[in-house]
Amino acid sequence: MSVTKVVMGKLSPTMEEGTIVKWSKQEGDAVKVGDVLAEIETDKANMEMEALGNGILRKLLVQAGGKAPVGTLIGVIADAGDDIAPMLATATAAAAPAAAPAGASPVPAAAAAAPAAAAAPAAPSAPTLAPRPAPVAPPPALEPGERVKASPLARSIAAHQNLPLGQIAGSGPGGRIVKRDVEAYAAAPRAVAGASAKAPAGPPVPSVTPGEELSLSSMRKTIAKRLSESKFTAPHFYVSVEIDMAAAVALREQLLAGENVKVSYNDLVLKACARALKRFPTVNASWGGDKIVTHAEVHVGVAVAIPDGLIVPVVRNADRKTVPEISAEVKALAGRARDKKLKPEEFMGSTFSVSNLGMYDVSEFTAIINPPESAILAVGSVREAAVVRNGRVEPGHTMKVTLSSDHRVIDGALAAQFLAEVRRLLENPVSLFI
After folding, report:
1. DSSP code per residue over 91-151
2. Which of 90, 129, 283, 325 is most buried, most CB within 10 Å of its CB?
3. Which residues carry out catalysis?
């Protein structure tokens, strides 16, 4: 008898449950060790799960879209003649809740009594595998408080592309919206409803209806847990400085014009922080309960916003890399982060983080420390401003940054010294290329 249990693995250090995005093998398929069985959505990224045994995929206990805690039996690989009934009998009770579709909660009485003109909320639910259907009719009108049925993957794609789920016809079981429906809607030409005048341009708006109850993704649950622990455990304090970015602006323009080197201000900030961390190793440290643990290497995390929340890819040994190397690596990491294709080693092990909201025209803000680090730098936009040089007011460019520090590790004077070094480097940006 050769039976292999397929269990939900712990694919990231903070993972407590996983969502099966899709099964790459189906019941009855032959599999061998190393074959990709499924794509699993963890709290950080989508990961491939490989087979650990040879045989036939006899049973899938959790369908695509279902969630399962780490260690739960989700499938069985066995030879055709093996008796797997006893194993299935013990697992059915635990697997049934994980395989049940989400979004099945009853509509509250208050929601049912809402005015008929209320907008229909959209919330994700678990998809079920189904054959490709014939063309479907337009989506039916929803009652107030009724949920739009959509798979987590379909919802994620719709949010990323700012598509209205309530206007997409679902072809899954029970009218559920699945990935192919969103892709078809995005590709189809559509006329603009209402007046012909164009609406003013603005930032992307998430496709969320007011009053909607949003199911928590694994990533959002982990963000809530870790940052709550950080905020309520580590005594945060904040120090801000304003940096004269005139030289950095001029250097960046020269690089773009002369060498066609595309370097962002954030790339310069990352390099400046890496240099400053080498000079002030206590900032590049963690709280160890009864000791302060300083890190021998400088691994700088870069906060990247994705539809499900926030992830922090890591530029390893940032102090040893050139600015163009950092720039290319950040672009590649950010792209894989948005596609949920990061490997564990690409989002684990940072010793310091940078969060930049300058692209949203935010002048300044404070960030929550990413544990187990002891500090994070919040970066605002580079703005045109009047600056005083040699007693004269002149036009210039400034940028505000705020360091959030864990007071158990970093004192105010050390935070000020670290920021002074970051400011010195950014106000003399040529030094970052030497």
Report:
1. HHHHHHHHHSPS--PPPPHHHHTS-TTSPPPB--------------PPPPPPPTTPPBPB-
2. 283
3. 407
